[in-house]
Amino acid sequence: MDLLNISKFSHIDLRSENEFEKGTIPNSINLPILKNDEFQAVGKEYKIHGQEAAMKLGLELTSGSTKEDRIKGWETHINSNIGCLIFCFRGGLRSQLAQQWLSEKKINVDRLEVTSQPDLNTINVLLKYNVQNTNINDSLNITFD
């Protein structure tokens, strides 16, 4: 699937609100797995204590009713938007975790896995002007999981 076709669906951008505001796939909505303050806390933990400690904190911050509320929001969007994918644009850990949580609730959704990191503003410009470039995927490798 190329960028032009991807933007025809309303996908779930799992990144924090600040990340979303910097750019996303057109027609996507922001239903973050980590809100801005949580994302910042996890980032600080990562810098000080590493990935394992950051992941542990992230799971603590999104446990219990917070986790259930996020899953419910994703489920509502997925059920009303056939063809919807989830994505996070970085290492894929957030979308992997969201997919796992959804799967535990018997909710199936594919992940949009971006394997290279082009600037989101570049993606938005390409889509806005409906660039018809057969090599568009050379700079953005997309797979579905």
In words, what does this structure look like?
The chain has 145 residues and is α/β, with parallel strands linked by helices. The chain has a single domain, classed as Oxidized Rhodanese, domain 1 (3-Layer(aba) Sandwich), CATH 3.40.250. It has helices spanning 3-6, 17-21, 36-49, 51-61, 64-80, 93-104, 120-128; strands spanning 12-13, 29-30, 85-87, 110-114, 142-144. The protein has a five-stranded mixed beta sheet with strand order 2-1-3-4-5. Helix 3 (36-49) packs antiparallel against helix 4. The longest helix has 17 residues, at 64-80.
List keywords for this structure.
7 helices, alpha/beta, disordered C terminus, 145 residues, single chain
Question: Could you outline the blueprint of secondary structure elements for this entry?
Answer:
Elements: H1 3-6, E1 12-13, H2 17-21, E2 29-30, H3 36-49, H4 51-61, H5 64-80, E3 85-87, H6 93-104, E4 110-114, H7 120-128, E5 142-144
Parallel strand pairs: 1-2, 1-3, 3-4
Antiparallel strand pairs: 4-5
